[in-house]
Amino acid sequence: MDIAVPFLIVIATIMAMEWTAWASHKYIMHGWGWGWHRDHHEPHDNMFEKNDLYGIVGAVMSISMFALGSPIVAGTHAWEPATWIGLGILGYGIIYTLVHDGLVHQRYFKWVPKHGYAKRLVQAHKLHHATIGKEGGVSFGFVIARDPAKLKAELKRQRKAGIAVVRESAGA
Question: Are residues 107 and 119 in the same domain?
């Protein structure tokens, strides 16, 4: 397989994982999977959260793809693109860990961005955490962030419509 094809598969998978993460976050984590995600939205001093179990789900997806692509595991039925898909899922997991857990929630390092896209990501995710409970909300992606002014307007609309309960400190 030409080196360009695996590279493109990895990049496409990373991009697809942002959409997958957005949909999972909105419809699973804020839906029937709220039991694992709830503690992520509540103050605590624990090093780990039940929400971290979603990272294990991602790891299982990546490992499964590596297995499907491995002749050692899958034998003659190995599907080589699965290896590159597994690498893309792993890459997204690393990006998620650094950006969401590290930068946004400061679980691993302390740095508050003053400008640029990093600041926009932090602001967007803070607006995501502005709602109380699983209903309503904005900014379900982890790497792509909409304009914070538009997110505030959406929160305000949701609050007026009774869709979401917004924390007073959120300013929406």
Answer: no
In sequence order, which ranges of the chain are alpha helices (DSSP H)? 4-23, 34-37, 53-69, 71-74, 80-96, 116-128, 148-161
Same domain, 103 and 124: no
pLDDT tens per residue, range 22-42: 999 999 999 999 999 999 999
Q: Over the stretch 110-164, which tens digit does the pLDDT of each residue have?
A: 999 999 999 999 999 999 999 999 999 999 999 999 999 999 999 999 999 999 9
Q: For residue 43, with 0-12 CB atoms within 10 Å meaning exposed, 13-18 middle and 19 or more buried, which class applies?
A: exposed
Task: Based on the fold, state whether residues 71 and 156 are members of the same structural domain.
Answer: no
Which of 95, 111, 127 finishes a domain? 111
Q: Report the C-alpha gap between 23 and 61 in whole angstroms.
A: 16
Domain that holds residue 99: 1-111
